[in-house]
Amino acid sequence: MEVLVTGASGNLGRRVVDKLRHNHGVHALDKTTVEQGLEVTTHQLDIVEDIDELERLIDDIRPSAIIHLAAIVGGICEQNPGEAHHLNTDVTVQLAHLARAHKVGHFVFASSAAVYNQRELSPTSENENIDPRGIYGMSKYKAEQGIGAIALRSSYTQFTTLRIFNAYGHGFQKSLVERLRTSRQQNAVGLVAWNNFYRDYIHADDIASGIESAAQYRPGVPEYTVINIASGQTRSNAALVREMMDLGAAPSYVRTNDDDVPDYSWADISRAAELLDFHPNTSINLRS
Question: Most buried residue among 23, 151, 168, 248 by CB atoms closer than 10 A?
Fold first, then answer.
């Protein structure tokens, strides 16, 4: 299977390319130089600036699947909302149009748990708690809606949105798990809401496995499917620190604002298990 991966130089992109290259022909695309050191075909192309060149590339390689990871993330979205909406929403929808027009078998879009706003400590299904609060989450959710509209007019392409929860692992330096793992006394990590801040942490290797599964044909699956990609477990800051210490880590941290308003993130992954045979690690992995 020939697979085109956008955002291939990103932290997640590198993991996905490395995962796919063992069983598939991979075309790794990014606006920066793709230096994988792997046996894959690389393409340097800014899909924001040259969507026409992207279409020519799709027509040339005729991929069986497109995995769209390219995005503007985090605080940069709040600083540049116009750019964030253009890439995360408009370009994503354009790329989905191209997938349909060129009869690409599968289009996989990396969305985010940022589309949720959970008010109770219980796992959310894909149909609950939709309430994006920031530019990033809103731009991703609007892209989901655009893809869904395209899927209604498609008789060939399977469109899948993966709502990815809190990724961690080597290279994800901004994740709380990695910040705690690499912390020292001189750069202690501030932790808010010690017993009230909950997150569902998913290792990047598990995310890559879920993405690979989503890029392959699944008989009986609707033309458009939204799937949570997470561990299915949630941890408070207190529980995360205790588990890391039990695993031999020595995180350095400072507790701040212990009484902050509760903040919850927790995925129901039963749909991923059913449709993707997705069974991620539920314990924190500090080895990679």
Answer: 168
Q: For residues 257 and 80, give the distance between their C-alpha atoms in angstroms, rounded to a whole number.
A: 29
- List per-residue pLDDT tens for the chain, 288 residues long: 899 999 999 999 999 999 999 999 999 999 987 665 667 999 999 999 999 999 999 999 999 999 999 999 988 988 999 999 999 999 999 999 999 999 999 999 999 999 999 999 999 999 999 999 899 999 999 999 999 999 998 778 999 999 999 999 989 999 999 999 999 999 999 999 999 999 999 999 999 999 999 999 777 777 899 999 999 999 999 999 999 999 999 999 999 887 788 999 999 999 999 999 999 999 999 877
Residues found in the chain: 288
* Coil, helix or strand at residue 147: helix
Q: Is 233 helix (H, G, I), strand (E, B) or coil?
A: coil
SS3 262: coil
Closest CA to 20 of 43, 6, 1: 1
Helices (H), 193-258: 204-214, 237-246
Q: What is the residue extent of each domain of the chain?
A: 2-169+201-232+266-276
Strand spans (E) along the chain:
2-6, 25-30, 41-44, 65-68, 106-112, 158-164, 166-168, 189-192, 198-199, 201-203, 224-229, 235-236, 253-256
pTM over 0.90: yes
Residue 40 in contact with residue 17, Cβ under 8 Å?
yes
Strand order in the sheet with 158-164: 41-44, 25-30, 2-6, 65-68, 106-112, 158-164, 224-229
